[in-house]
Automatic annotation (TrEMBL):
It comes from Hyphomicrobium sulfonivorans. GO terms for molecular function: DNA binding; DNA-binding transcription factor activity; L-aspartate:2-oxoglutarate aminotransferase activity; pyridoxal phosphate binding. This is Transcriptional regulator, GntR family domain. Residues 13-81 form the HTH gntR-type domain. SUPFAM superfamilies: PLP-dependent transferases (SSF53383), Winged helix' DNA-binding domain (SSF46785). Its EC number is 2.6.1.1. The lineage of its organism: Bacteria, Pseudomonadati, Pseudomonadota, Alphaproteobacteria, Hyphomicrobiales. Keywords: Aminotransferase, DNA-binding, Pyridoxal phosphate, Transcription, Transcription regulation, Transferase. In the C-terminal section; belongs to the class-I pyridoxal-phosphate-dependent aminotransferase family. It comes from the Bacteria.
Length: 506
């Protein structure tokens, strides 16, 4: 959660008092509801560029007056019983996030959180849209899928009318286990695999197996929005860990106590960095030494263009400390809503129980079709074709950015379905460029608009996410040229405040 607090140094009040009164007002007006978690003092101070001591003192005063309460490592929360009788939100009115009040007595309100961005911010799609994580619609093997679907439904019989195994179709779990052993070096039994409705569903399942509020969660910064928002909503004490060109900086992980590390090693989200083999081994050593566990989201591992992928953490793990997340949303189609998690062997039965409590399993027909698609070799063939297509589009995007902007700073180009482009030095804020580009029919996205989360805000101001997998090459060229014209116009508009240039040959 982020708090939009504004300070006036000429107001005649200390910053501490201003922070106290603004947070109290957010609580009294119902924008911060009972049970909602507040950001840690350190992170809030960083976001507001003020002293951490100022925020800590404001929190102390709010706590002393009964507005907030500390729950140890779980964090600081708005009190369930606020002292002022004026606590209210207009009936039927909208909260600060735009959601309407649920109309329940406050003791029943315990949830707080934000939805991750996985679809476009609005219904109107830009003419040329670099939306993130979207596969090329025409690449989906529609005719093959229809043929397999008709075959399965004709012999399905009672399987269509009965509940299946909540852990997933056994044949599909065997197929996934064989595929992982062959392509990712992850050798597991089918019993360790739980089929889910995508990686977010799998992450929810894993969190139900962990003691979330009572152990620190170490997460990459910047990171995948869906993970950060989920962990926060469950009361996790989040500790952002920096990433560089080799992925998460393992040396910055504390070694004093057990915790949970969430990583995206194959293609760090959003920067695209690949966690080196040396750091993978160091991360596993850290987990073993501290009795910690690792959640590995391997979402983009199928798309590696210039070199072979490094063996997954779960494939290198000898101590049963890695939970592995996989999904078919990027490699095949997000609309299928099929993913999976691999849990350590000793947690296979508890995971099956948790899954049965969450739901009664995924649709039999989709699982049956996917099973044959994998076992027949059609999935491998589909991946080869998709890799060729996406590599061509990646090459076109990089070449266009270099031609228009000279030595463009690009990260994450080795694999995946997107790159991160750092705006030219002195350029305006990424959110402004996103808005201006949209007016010219081009959809490019600042980090927080592209399913990423930056804890301190330092990275997001100059970084743009460009998903190229669903954009045709001719449109990529047109879009990048429009971006060049846009930044030239912005330079003229805001000169002499903006200082950046394009190569004269552009």
């Amino acid at each position: 959660m982020e708090l939009d607090l504004r300070f006036d140094k000429d107001a005649g009040q200390t910053l501490q008092t201003q922070a106290f009164e603004q947070i109290r007002n957010l609580i009294l007006k119902g924008f911060l509801r009972p049970g909602m978690i507040l950001p840690p003092t350190r992170l809030l101070a960083q976001q507001l560029s003020i002293s951490r001591n100022t925020i800590a003192l404001a929190y102390d005063r709010l706590s002393a007056e009964g507005y907030i309460e500390s729950r140890g490592r779980a964090g600081t929360f708005v009190s369930q019983s606020v002292p002022d009788e004026s606590l209210s939100a207009d009936a039927g009115g909208e909260t600060q996030s735009g959601a309407r009040g649920v109309g329940l007595p406050s003791p029943l309100l315990c949830f707080s959180g934000h939805p991750p961005v996985v679809s476009r911010p609005d219904a109107k799609q830009p003419l040329i849209d670099f939306w993130v994580g979207r596969s090329e619609p025409s690449s989906f093997p529609l005719e093959t899928w229809r043929r397999l679907l008709l075959r399965k439904i004709s012999v399905g019989g009672s399987k269509l009318t009965e509940y299946g195994d909540p852990a997933g179709l056994s044949e599909l779990r065997v197929a996934i286990a064989n595929h992982l052993a062959r392509t990712r070096g992850v050798v597991v039994s089918a019993e360790q695999i739980i089929v889910t409705s995508g990686s977010q569903d799998a992450l929810n399942l894993i969190c139900r197996l962990l003691d979330v509020p009572n152990h620190p969660f170490y997460i990459e910064n910047p990171c995948y929005q869906g993970a950060a928002f989920l962990f926060r909503s469950l009361g996790a004490n989040l500790h952002p860990i920096a990433v560089d060109q080799q992925g998460i900086v393992v040396d910055k992980l504390p070694r004093s106590h057990a915790g949970v590390a969430f990583v995206t090693p194959s293609h760090q989200y959003p920067t695209g960095a690949t966690l080196s083999l040396e750091r993978r081994l160091a991360l596993l050593e850290w987990a073993n030494e501290t009795n910690s566990v690792i959640i590995e989201d391997d979402y983009d591992s199928h798309f590696r263009y210039d070199s072979r992928p490094i063996t997954a953490l779960a494939g290198l793990d000898q101590d049963r400390r890695v939970f592995y997340l996989g999904t078919f949303s990027k490699s095949l189609a997000a609309g299928l809503r099929i993913g999976f998690t691999v849990v350590p062997h000793h947690l296979a039965q508890p995971a099956r129980i948790v899954k049965s409590q969450m739901n009664h399993g995924q649709a039999w027909l989709d699982q049956a079709v996917l099973t044959e698609f994998i076992e027949s070799g059609l999935y491998d063939r589909h991946l080869r074709r998709a890799r060729k297509l996406y590599k061509s589009r990646r090459d076109c995007l990089i070449e266009s950015l270099q031609q228009v902007f000279g030595n463009a700073e690009i990260s994450g180009a080795e694999g995946g379905l997107h790159v991160v482009w750092k705006l030219p030095h002195g350029c305006s804020d990424a959110a402004v460029v996103q808005q201006r580009a949209r007016l010219r029919g081009v959809g490019i996205y600042a980090l927080n608009s592209g399913a990423a989360h930056d804890f301190d805000g330092s990275a997001s101001r100059q970084m743009m996410v460009l998903g190229y997998s669903s954009v045709k090459e001719k449109d990529i060229v047109v879009a990048v040229n429009r971006l060049g014209e846009l930044l030239d116009d912005m330079r003229s508009e805001f000169a002499p405040y903006l200082v950046f240039s394009r190569p004269k040959s552009a």
